[in-house]
Design a protein that fits this description.
The structure is a homodimer. Chain A has a domain at about 55-155 and about 205-230: Tetracycline Repressor, domain 2 (Orthogonal Bundle). Chain A is mostly helical. In chain A, helix 4 packs across helix 5 (about 85-100) and helix 8 (about 140-150) runs antiparallel to helix 11. The first copy, chain A, is built from 11 helices and no strands. Chain A has helices at about 5-10, 15-30, 35-40, 55-75, 85-100, 110-115, 120-135, 140-150, 170-180, 185-195, 210-230. In chain A, about 60% of the residues lie in helices and about 0% in strands. At the A-B interface, helix 6, helix 7, helix 8, helix 10 and helix 11 of A face helix 6, helix 7, helix 8, helix 10 and helix 11 of B. The structure holds a DNA duplex.
Chain lengths: ~230, ~230
DNA sequence: CGGGCCTCCTTACGCTGTACGGGTCGCTCC
DNA sequence: GGAGCGACCCGTACAGCGTAAGGAGGCCCG
């Protein structure tokens, strides 16, 4: 077999490149496609070669979170009002920006929730959020509670329970089932009936962005009141 | 090899028994231990035999969620005040009861979040919650928003981002790192310093139950205000 | 009593992450 | 300048995973 033609051209293989390739792969083909062999293939390399730049697959997952959160940190820099004047607006803007980034990486929330240790990017992001709250007059204690209350929302996502199966069929059959079982599930059936004649109809009824903002504002309201109360 | 000694004695193998064994296994040895082979072994059977009672592993996971939520539904029956008098107390009691059940199955939240379709138990549970809100005077629309805002909290859990590695070492090193990087992460370092001299010290500083209730009450407050506002 | 069905077992395949050992390059130092 | 060395990469192999395919035994119904 031909000897390696040009070492330098490809030997740019580095931790950074591995992680970026992992993110790209997940973006293109979904999280299940992110295997060590497939990742290596994308980098034109054998699977075992990856282990010279990352300890194991866990480290890869840690790394992709680092990359994605890094993207967020880059995106939120300088957006939104001055925290000292309007902490609430500043926080809101930052979180919605984070959400916009995560919408480009739909698989990322699932990975983030499996992580156990923070990395520098994440710590930096949270430090920034904390800074906003402090500038707004929060005590450390209340700020701490606030971060817990926001939870994953602070990073711009909420994992929906029992998410949409597939956009078309899923809703229809659930709807039909509920109609038949209207006496067993009266309130759900009622809600469905109520919502049905309001907007377009089937389960386009859940506007993720609207629900996210509703819940976020609910929390911000609550925090504002706790803050005012002292 | 000896012919089967007593078919009847073990042939109680049934979907229910399989799912219950799966729950028990996960309780005892954690989610990673829940493999088809290991599960079969616990039931004194070969792996492939399971496939006569469940379609595949996904169906097993669907099933264990069904079992756990069934446990919740059983536990919440009849607890809390009358919803027509005190929707908020009723909702709160129900959710905290659900949480108590889930604390017995620490692996369950992770499984629930991977599910894509609801089962009858889950639908029934949410119908009950909806009933409480309706009795409290919520419009279908506001109730719908409320369920989304509660999210997984409605089932009694919140997945903490970057959960505790292990109780002892994890906190210490994070603490030391933060102290060293006090100029890079001023707010986190400040919060840590503030909290440190308040209670016992290291990262027993996050009381999960207290944080859960804080966030829950924040949301209930907000919903109450939205309700009053009409 | 005979056929079919329901259960269960056996075997095997493709996939995963990764341990281990060897080969090849470029740099450094005598 | 050549010998050593460390960084990088490859090939092979293994255990474990979910599960497809086919065969064997006991049960019920005709």
């Amino acid at each position: 077999m031909a000897p390696r033609t040009d070492v330098a051209a490809r030997s740019a293989l580095t931790r950074r490149r591995v992680l970026q390739a992992a993110v790209d792969l997940a973006d293109r083909e979904g999280l299940p496609a992110l295997t060590m062999r497939r990742l290596a293939q994308d980098l034109d390399v054998e699977a075992m070669s990856l282990y010279h730049h990352v300890a194991n697959k866990e480290a890869v997952l840690d790394g992709v979170v680092e990359v994605v959160v890094g993207e967020i940190v880059g995106a939120v820099a300088g957006v939104g009002p001055d925290a000292a004047v309007d902490w609430r607006g500043a926080l809101r803007a930052r979180i919605l920006t984070a959400r916009r980034v995560l919408l480009r990486h739909p698989w990322a929330p699932a990975v983030i929730e499996t992580r156990t240790a923070m990395n520098a990017e994440v710590i930096g992001y949270f430090d920034g959020l904390l800074g906003i709250l402090r500038a707004g007059g929060f005590s450390y204690d209340l700020a701490h509670h606030a971060m817990h209350a926001l939870g994953s929302r602070a990073l711009g996502f909420t994992r929906e329970l029992f998410a949409p199966a597939d956009p078309e069929t899923g809703g229809e059959e659930a709807m039909a089932m509920l109609e038949q079982l209207a006496d067993v599930y009266p309130h759900l059936a009622g809600m469905l009936a109520d919502t049905a004649h309001r907007d377009d109809g089937v389960l386009g009824w859940c506007d993720d962005q609207a629900e996210f903002e509703f819940a976020l504002d609910l929390l911000l309201d609550g925090l504002d009141r706790r803050l005012a109360r002292g």
